[in-house]
Amino acid sequence: MNLEFSQEQHMLRDSVDRFVTQAYGFAERRAIAESPTRISPSAWQAMADFGWLALPLPEADGGLGGSAVDVGILMQGLGRGLVLEPVLSSSVLAAGLIAGQGAEAQRARWLPGIADGSRRAAFAHIEPGVDPWRGLPTTCATKTVEGWRIDGAKPFVPDAPGASLLVVSARIGTSTDVGLFVLDPDTAGLRMETVETWDDRLAATVGFEAVAVPDDALLGEAVDARAVIERSLDRTVAAACAEAVACMQVLLEATIEHTRTRQQFGRALSENQVLRHLMVDMAVQCEEARAIALRAAHACDAQHDDPAARARAVSGARLKIDEASRFVAQSAVQLHGAMGVTDELNIGAYFRRLLCIESSWGTHAEHLSRCVDLRRDGVSVGMELELDEEELAFRDEVRAFIAENLPAALARGQRMNASVVAEPDQAAPWHRALHVRGWSAPGWPVEHGGTGWTPAQRFVFDAECARADAPPLSPFGLKMVGPVLLGFGSEEQKSRFLPGILSGEVAWCQGYSEPGSGSDLASLKTRAVRDGDDYIVNGTKIWTTHAHHADWMFALVRTGDGPRKQDGISFLLIDMKSPGITTRPIRTMGGDHEVNQVFFDDVRVPVANRVGDEGRGWSYGKYLLQFERGGALFAIRLRRDLSRMDEAGWVAARSGERTIERDDIQARFVMLENDVAALEMIELQIMSALQTGESPGAVSSQIKLRASELRQEITQLGVALLGAAALVREPRRPLHAVEDLAGDLAPELVPIVPTYLNSRANTIFGGSSQVQRDILAKDILRI
Ligand SMILES: Cc1cc2nc3c(=O)[nH]c(=O)nc-3n(C[C@H](O)[C@H](O)[C@H](O)COP(=O)(O)OP(=O)(O)OC[C@H]3O[C@@H](n4cnc5c(N)ncnc54)[C@H](O)[C@@H]3O)c2cc1C
After folding, report:
1. Quick one: which H or E segment has residue 268?
2. With contact defined as beta carbons under 8 Å apart, do 157 and 203 qualify?
3. Fewest Cβ atoms nearer than 10 Å: which of 234, 417, 452, 454?
């Protein structure tokens, strides 16, 4: 598994960026856009000289054999400059068809010219109402004595004007095969009417009336070319997605810059929280678009080409990017005010290019129905990592371990779990089993009991656990206080507390929030006053998850008052059995008892239980929050949640609620699966870039933001699947222990509504979504 760019790829990116900055500025582009051909011969020649026109072509045909990821890098660079020359139509699409379907002599005849820029090619294919991938064109090729006769029309052929070769798809005679013909546009009977497109380019309406072509105009044998068409279109769409990402990124950067400098009401526009948050959402969409475009490119490059998986990845990416780019482009115009709607900035040109990408190589509706069909055929959008032999052996080892050690009752308990955190009777036995195997703390350094796994191994392990419905381990020890102790605890504290955390024998809870201090946590008032070797703690903590199960609490308390409210806060480890602690249960709207209020009345806590320096607890607490928010593979669990909703939907269908079968519901699944795939790609990239045990930094806020929103959307979809059956309430908890569940719902449907209700908390705990947006605006967008 390698998701990092190679050195060559970095060099490619830099050279395209340089070209665009130096030779393709605003004025140069405008001149090209206003020229009759929309092509600059010198820019085209430069692209040929750099080898970019040859990049997508196989080495055997005189190309550079670039991967889809390489082509994506090229297109991102060209996209930044809104480059008009038809690299995509000619070198990626048309050349891909000739290379994929052509016989050796045909490839030798046409491809070198495309690679060196002396020929430009376009693909005449799209017909209204005909599926671009598998449909049968109405344009028809009939065998004649001399060769072939082509009749029909292609109402929209991008980049056809000025092309010296047209690749045309046509039905072969009365068969159901589709052939590809290479034509000279000047051939008698071929009519071409030029049209302008909204992105300053040219396209054509092409008509064929008894167009006679020789036998060798047909690429390859007279066999169905649909597999090659599908593959080339997929590579083109993946490349176009990369281009769209670049356009979105430019729009975001321009918007940030504009709002920073534009003063209204006596301050910069960027100082308004509502605008900052909107820009964060734009940035998140850009990042997800980047990730899913890269994922689509990887799917095109897969060693074992699986057309269905590739199709799902590519069309899924297009769908996600369509929506993301609309949001980013519309927001960019909005935040530029009237300047945004003029043609005096490039904003409108990027907007229009994105609009055209959305309407080319399959419409949004066509990509959606392609994904829905693939989904119905059981094609998943999962990240199929190309595992090497060692990784495959590891996966088998994990599977065998789970099969032996995860009792069916625990897996059922996890499926019935509607709470935010698994109950200890579920999580603790699994924690013990993992500990015995040495697998309880994959994120820790090896010398403290970590596993030393590679990112691929961590991914495989989490994926297998999620697939088997293993309960997630309690995060308070392993993912929160553990990393703080590792980073800032004394040796004595490490040897005293880490073993119990690792084994799961000691349960922890988090004492941060107070009745008066939630988002503004630094205003906390629980006070610890020094008395000899002890602190005496007074105050209250609230919303403390699993305080009623915990042996210990890690807490932020006030030990002093400094100039800033963040000063004077310390990080204490408090034994929950200490005299003076009382716990009041709080029931949540989903019916669960997870959270509590904890009161401290003169509770003695040894000074030795303070982590790090007195008064520096705020920085340790923030460090911990980054682990709480990120540092996990949320997407894997989200994917499992989705597949559980899918399974539940089919169960509901058997009992009469056939909602799952509806196209709009299937479309919602598709869109959510795309979102989860984008998040997964981002998580994998972060994970492969991080050393074990490192803090993920501010990007953890982005992961938290999106993972919590997606969880809510997934559970909401679950409620939609139930229809009227969602009304029945089962008040008893935990659900897995209730033998005679209320109503006549199948057991696996019962947790859906309480999960939906409980999931409202996801965008609140660990810092609400608004607070995450504040962090992202400041730490990532620097506004
Ligand atoms: C199920 C659950 C479990 C929890 N578990 C724990 C736990 O184990 N330990 C613990 O310490 N805490 C826990 N919490 C508490 C959680 O961390 C807080 O709820 C959270 O920090 C928000 O604080 P608040 O609820 O006081 O909301 P407030 O701070 O009152 O905010 C209310 C709303 O106002 C908005 N808002 C707040 N600040 C801003 C801002 N600056 N800009 C824009 N909008 C803003 C947000 O929409 C926010 O949701 C838990 C909460 C829940 C729901």
Report:
1. strand 267-268
2. yes
3. 452
Q: Global pTM?
A: 0.95
Catalytic position from the list 243, 358, 628, 657: 628
Closest C-alpha to 570, from 562, 580, 578, 579: 562
The binding-site residues of ligand 1, defined as CB within 6 angstroms of any ligand atom, are 420, 509-513, 518-519, 543-545, 594-595, 761, 764-765, 767-768, 770-771, 774
The tokens for 319 are 């769908």
Q: What is the DSSP letter of 59?
A: G
CA 544 to ligand 1 center in whole angstroms: 12
pLDDT of residue 689: 72
| Residue 353: strand, helix, or coil | helix
How many Å from the N-terminal Cα to the C-terminal Cα in the chain? 35
What is d(CA 504, CA 762) in angstroms, rounded to the nearest whole number? Answer: 24
Q: List residues bridging with 745 in a β-sheet.
A: none
**Cα(239)–Cα(250) distance, rounded to whole angstroms?**
17
What Cα–Cα distance (Å) separates residue 311 from each residue in 78, 100, 291, 319, 643? 25, 17, 17, 12, 20
- β-pairing, 202-214 with 190-196? antiparallel
Please report where in the chains the tokens 């034509």 appear, as a residue: 183
Of 281, 514, 765, 773, the residue with max ligand 1 atoms within 8 A of its CB, to mutate for a pocket test, comes to 765
- Which residue stretches of the chain have pLDDT < 50? none
Q: How far apart are CA 456 and CA 685, in angstroms?
A: 11
- SS3 string of 552-591? EEEEEEECCCCCCCCCCEEEEEEECCCCCEEEEEEECCCC
- Tracing tokens 């490059």 back to the chain, one arrives at 301
**Closest ligand 1 atom to the C-alpha of 763?**
49
Atom in ligand 1 nearest the alpha carbon of residue 509: 8
H-type helices in 377-488, by residue range?
Answer: 389-405, 408-416, 424-437, 455-467, 475, 482-488
CA 767 to ligand 1 centroid distance, Å:
6
Q: Which residues are paired to 211 by β-bridges?
A: 150
Which residues lie closer than 8 Å to 546 by C-beta, 6 or more apart?
Answer: 421, 424, 474, 476, 507, 509, 594
- Both structure tokens of 208: 């064929």
Query: Length of the chain in residues, anyone?
Result: 783
CB atoms within 10 A of CB 232: 27
Q: How far apart are CA 89 and CA 83, in angstroms?
A: 13
Atom of ligand 1 nearest to the CA of 513: 11
Is there a contact between 675 and 711 (Cβ–Cβ < 8 Å)? no
Active-site residue, 628 included: yes
Q: Find the 563 Cα to ligand 1 centroid distance in Å.
A: 25
Convert the pLDDT of each residue in 11-65 to its tens digit: 999 999 999 999 999 899 999 999 999 999 999 999 999 999 999 999 999 999 9
Stated as kind and residue range, the H or E segment containing 599 is strand 593-606
Distance CA 275, CA 281 (A): 10
Nearest CA to ligand 1 atom 42: 770
Gap between the Cα atoms of 289 and 464, Å rounded:
27
| Cα 275 from Cα 770, distance rounded (Å) | 12
What would the pLDDT profile of 664-697 be if each residue is shown by its tens digit? 999 999 999 999 999 999 988 887 776 555 666 6
> Under a CB-based contact definition with an 8 Å cutoff, are residues 344 and 308 in contact?
no
